[in-house]
Amino acid sequence: MVRSDLRRGLNKGRPTTPIAKTVRPSQRKGIQSARTKFVRSVVREVAGFSPYERRVMELLRNSKDKKARKLTKKRLGTLLRSKRKLEELSNIIQESRRTGH
After folding, report:
1. For the whole prediction, is pTM greater than 0.70?
2. What Å distances lie between residue 9 and 4, 5, 18, 62, CA to CA?
3. Are 75 and 84 in contact (CB under 8 A)?
4. Which stretches of sequence are listed as region Disordered (predicted)?
5. How many domains, in total, are found in the chain?
6. Which of 18, 32, 56, 57 has its CA at 20 to 30 Å from residue 95's CA atom?
């Protein structure tokens, strides 16, 4: 709301121009940059999957979702990380089915 020369009310005070707030690095936390995304994709392409990830992918292919969830939770520590990893690996399985590998 723009201030006016009124003495009372919600928009009281001298008319001023609002100053845009600068974005701090702490407010950017968790946002993935394009460079990071590219580097991680290259590392994934070169290094491949870890043994537990291959095992989880095999469990997902055989529709043993609960066992896969338990395994990833044991390895990664929390259920949220486990769910993210399962989502990532199931997307990779779907992509491989589409390409026909």
Report:
1. no
2. 10, 10, 18, 66
3. no
4. 1-32
5. 1
6. 32
